[in-house]
Amino acid sequence: MGYHLIDPNDLDQWDNRPTDVRSLSVAAGYDYQNSKLGLRVYELAPGEQSGLSYHSHDEQVEAFYVLDGTLHVETPDETYVVESDHVLFVDPGSPQRAFNPETAETATRILAIGAPSVDDAHPYDPSDDA
């Protein structure tokens, strides 16, 4: 059996992304690649996105649970506004870009879940659909 109690405030910046991101799953000993689960906490200042530009995944399901503030998720059809204590699921093959708009008055804090944790992201250019 294994149990891992982690305080995100005790973790260092996870990678070189331009936003504050802490990898809970890596801290618990789960590999970044080819793990059943990726779990991260992001704090997005006004004008910041979650790290990846507009993209989609081949097999990874993503879920964005908003802890504080409001998250905006741009898709080809609409921009979802995800309020605190709400979650948006993004199925594989569904392009999206998660961000906190420049006009926001506060930071947005989210719990991002990816399953499985695989590096299968592909850039998406909305103009390709035109």
TrEMBL record:
**Residues covered by the Cupin type-2 domain:** 41-105
Which InterPro entries does this entry report, sorted A to Z?
Cupin_2, GPI/OXD, RmlC-like_jellyroll, RmlC_Cupin_sf
Instruction: Supply the name of the protein.
Output: Cupin type-2 domain-containing protein
Q: Which organism is it from?
A: Haladaptatus pallidirubidus
Which terms are listed as keywords in the entry?
A: Metal-binding
One molecular function GO term is:
metal ion binding
Instruction: Report any Pfam family annotated for this entry.
Output: Cupin_2
